[in-house]
Amino acid sequence: MAAMARAIRIEYPSALYHVMARGNRRERIFHDDVDWRFFLKTLGEACARTGWQVHAWVLMRNHYHLMLETPQANLVEGMKWLQNTYTRRFNTRHRLWGRLFGDRYKAVLTEGRDDYYYASLMDYIHLNPVRVGLVRTDRKESVRDYPWSSIAQGYAVPARKRPEWLAAAKGLAVAQCADTARGRRSFVEHLDKRAQEEGSRRAGVIEPATDRRRSHLRHGWYWGSQAFAEQMLNVARKGLSARKSRTYRSSGVAQAHDQAEAERLLSGGLAAAELDHRALVRLAGSEIRKVALADLLLRRTVVRQSWIAEHLAMRSAANVSQQVRRYRANKKPKLPPRLKAYLASVKIC
Q1: How far apart are CA 136 and CA 205, in angstroms?
Q2: Per the confidence metrics, is the pTM higher than 0.85?
Q3: I need a surface site. Which of 22, 77, 82, 154 has the fewest CB within 10 A?
Q4: pLDDT tens column, 224-256
């Protein structure tokens, strides 16, 4: 019997997704606070590379949920980098090997321009700790008491304490809560009230009255109206007609985050560093300007380390990895003023 084909990923600019991923065999993907912090750091790096904005998130012991917006059509490339990078860091830290995540991550398209679908997904994610018993309403606990969600680390704190990639201001606005101490308190109280009224098992869960196989917060391929579903099907058909192979990448990704974007950043960086091809070949692979540019490309694009090694004359992908790791450990690298200013201009300093 032929294997069932995988459902295609529908990608388009400014798409909003409910992304979920579990550990292999439902095993833990977070063992302690360090792992949780590692994942958030990796997520922040993924957002810097791709331009993603996260509207809500929660990390559990063996899975995570993201409410993720992709200004460019780059969900697949970004998720590949995020999960592969976290897996590598997790395995290195715990001296393990092999896959960390189980089946293919799930990405439910969401009608983000409709406040109902936006708010219901946001609440569903934030109430996850209630549904699994990590926040007990019978003990007067609040969703804010769970530390590993965008409530405790975003919506309940002032804007200056939030990561740049968290779009909490949008979430508060949709909930009609001002981004003030009082407004943030009202936002949390709304979630706590839902938890108390709906009960621990059903908090935040909405069962659609129609089209239950397809439009669903968790199990369907989209969460939205029938009109939204028809729009997404048209996007999918266009993607299928344009796709020439299984490695096809959408034009949004190609324009913003592939080789063309890397070449643009590299061109500006080489000019700022006063380096040309002859100088690159002559200088050692550990030369600070070359390593600083390699770090820029790794943070802001998804090109391979082998590509960086070739274009910066750094011998090998392994050398790129090693030199960048040392560079990042150096809190005050000595860089020429023009290069330092260029890196600051693209928010890499």
Answers
A1: 17
A2: no
A3: 22
A4: 888 898 888 888 877 665 554 444 444 333 433
